[in-house]
Structure formats: structure tokens, C-alpha cells
Amino acid sequence: MKPFASHAKEVANWEYAMSLTIKDDKMPKTTVKGSQFAQPLFEFSGACAGCGETAYMKAVTQLYGDRMIIANATGCSSIWGGSAPATPYTTNSKGHGPAWANSLFEDNAEYGYGMALGVKTVRKQIAAQAEVIVASGDDKLVPAFTAWLEGINDADASKAATELIRSVVDTKSNNADVQKALDFVKANDEYLVKKSVWIVGGDGWAYDIGYGGLDHVLASGENINVIVFDTEVYSNTGGQASKSTPTAAVAKFAASGMKVKKKDLGMIATTYGYVYVAQVGMGANQGQFIKALAEAESYDGPSLIICYSPCIAHGLKAGMSSAQYRIKEAVAAGYWHLWRFDPRLKNQGKNPFILDSKPPTASYQDFINGESRYTVLMSQFPDEGERLFVKAEEDAKERYDSYVRMAEMKY
To answer: What 3-state class would DSSP assign to 229?
Structure first.
């Protein structure tokens, strides 16, 4: 930190920057370039410098922030996401922004599921009232409510129709049923635009303590989105091992290195066949990440996106400023793999599994030697370290080979 006086000259620059209009209509927001013209509705978080999690959330809010509802599991993301009395989530010029709330490790998935069901129920009630209005044949009201019913599950269409409804909803009707319907719609105005519900949390929540609830929500078939910030360790509570911790990594409760391989949460979710799943790494392939976001949010069913997130607990020898580059190195070394599973492709006679990672081109051993969570094992337990380092690479290769087999399956 530096004295404020030394930064006073930047005030004018800041005020100028804040006076500029958002130009998010110049190209599709579902592209890397297009997404970055959109206003982030996530800013100034209190996360560790270089945190691998926050970059993902910033991007999500650029695409869907003005209509997002977030259920956040306790963990790092609930700390940088809502440390009272401040929050990094903000609003756009219309006052629209993410609605955020935090729940426990053990019930966050169910918490978000309840939000999704609540929104769904209210919107069904609005639709029933809209049908009453359309049936009345009122020339002033019918076009707006017909447009809304036709675009009820389309974000852009529901936004446009919502503006039409707001322009006529104060109309007074002599028909008691129509007036009652108009009053109900006005009272529930905030639900007119299609909501984008996201359940978010870390691997301690998703892989371990909250896994039962997460599995229940994914199995429900409801249209709900889940993001997991995978740091491969319980980051916020002090660095305890989770089922996401890979072979050979040192963490609390795994002081002599993790002895078993990392749980493949994504592949477990694909066994349902109707869950959209993606494993992403922003620093390795930004396009694949944005594509996964767009596919997941547009999918009419449950979606799960698992994001590789370098953490201060990893002990990056290059420092946390290299977090995004470390993601790129992780994919190049075959440590982390990029893939998507889109159930919609089955209806087209295509393989729903898409492997976005190419075969490893860099040394796996060189990669893990770039993090102290691995090298400390070799210094303290060299014999065990040598054994586990070999096993860790074998586990990673076995996982990649299984993905290759899936990608080659015929449909």
C-alpha cells in the first residue's frame, strides 16, 4: 500500500474512465473479445493477489451478471464474495446486478436449488396471469404479454418483452380478472426477465462435504448452473486435503503426500447422461472457457463447470502473478485436462464428449516441481516422494487416456 496522496493524480483518470459508456453490443458476448467489452459486475474483491478463482467469476458476471442469482458455499469464494460490510458484486447503470447469498458447506447446493425452484414457481404463476390477459383480447395489452409468453425462457427475448410489459402494466381494466392479473405481474416485476441461477463453491464443498447435495441437485434435471473453483485443497480453512487433492500433493491430513488419485467429479456427473459438464482452465484456453459458459447457461437442464484455480496454498515458485500462466502449463503437461460433455449432441447422433486438450507436450515432473506442495514431499520424505511422483504422473496419464477413449466412441 502507498499513501493516498501519491495516487491523487489518478483521480481524474478514474473519473474519466467511469464516464465512458459500455459498448457491449459490438460483437457477440459469447466470444472472448466480445465478453470483455461487457461490464464486469464483480470488482475489487478482497481475494489473495493472483487468486485463480476470481477471474472466472468476473467473466461469468460479464455474460450473465445483470440477471444472476448466486448461491455461494462457505469457503474462499464466500469470503472474497461477501465480506461484510463490502461486496465485490455491483450493478450496471440500470441498477441490475447479481443477487448473492451464502450458505453452508453441507447444504449450499440445496440452497441454490430452492432458489431455482422458487423462481420457476413465481414465473409459472406470472405465465398463468399473462394467459388471462392475452385471453381478454385487449389490443393494448395482448402484444406485450404474447411476446413475453413466447420468449419466457429466452434471456434477450424476455428482456425485450419485459420493457413492453412495463409500458402497459399500469393500464386500468374494467375486467376484474385482467386487473387482478396486471396487479400480480406488477408485484412480481423482478421475475419477468429470465434468471440465471448459479451455485458456486470450492472443491472442499463440491467434492467432499457438500457432494451429496450437489449430486441430488444435478440428478434433479432442473435448469441450474454449478461452478466449482478447484484449488485441489480446502483453501479457506487452512489447506486441508480434499478428494480433489492429487496424488503426491502435500496438505494437512496428507503430510507425507496424498496416496490416492484425485476424484473425477466431472466424469461422475456425466454418467447421468443429461447433465452438461465442462472442465476448464482459463489461462490455457480462454475460448474453451467462454464456450463452456455459453453452452452451460443455454442448456435447459443442470450444468457443472469445474475450473482449475491456482491458489496461494500451492506454493507457486513463480509467484501468484503467474497463476494464469500456471494453468496453461498445467494443461500442456497433462496435469489438467480440458473437455466438455454436451447431452444435446446425442440428439444429433454425435458423441456428447469433446476432448479439448491436446496430448501433453511438456514435462509433468517439471510442472509439479514448480510448486512447493509437491517439492516439500521430496525434501521431507524423498523415498516416498519418488514413488508418489511416478504414481502421480501415471494417474494423470491414465485419466487422459480414458478421455481419449471417450472422445473416440461412436454414436
So the answer is: strand
Query: CA-to-CA distance for 284 and 305, rounded, in angstroms?
Result: 15
* 342 touches 299 (CB < 8 A): yes
The strand ranges marked E within 125-249 are: 196-202, 225-230
Q: What's the rounded Cα separation, in Å, for the pair 137 and 45?
A: 51
Query: Do residues 239 and 340 share a domain?
Result: yes
Q: Are 38 and 150 members of one domain?
A: no
- With CA atoms as reference, report the closest residue to 219 among 166, 167, 271: 271
pLDDT tens readout for residues 271-318: 999 999 999 999 999 999 999 999 999 999 999 999 999 999 999 999
Q: Is the pTM of this model over 0.90?
A: yes
Q: Is there a cis peptide before residue 343, judged by omega within 30 degrees of 0?
A: no
Question: Which 8-state DSSP code applies to residue 279?
Answer: E
Number of domains in the chain: 2
Spell out the residues 6+ positions from residue 230 whose beta carbon is closer than 8 angstroms to its own: 202, 203, 206, 244, 306, 307, 308, 309
Q: Give the Cα-Cα-Cα angle 71, 75, 76 (nearest 5 degrees).
A: 105
96-to-40, 61, 80, 99 alpha-carbon distances in Å: 12, 11, 20, 9
Q: Report the alpha-carbon distance of residue 216 to residue 320 in Å, rounded.
A: 35
Domain end (from 134, 159, 191): 191
The three-state secondary structure class of 43 is: coil
Q: Do the domain assignments include residue 13?
A: no
CA–CA dist 320, 371 (Å, integer): 11
pLDDT in tens, 20-64: 999 999 899 999 999 999 999 999 998 999 999 999 999 999 999
First to last CA, the chain: 58
Task: Please check whether residue 326 is in contact with residue 283, taking contact to mean a CB–CB distance below 8 angstroms.
Answer: yes
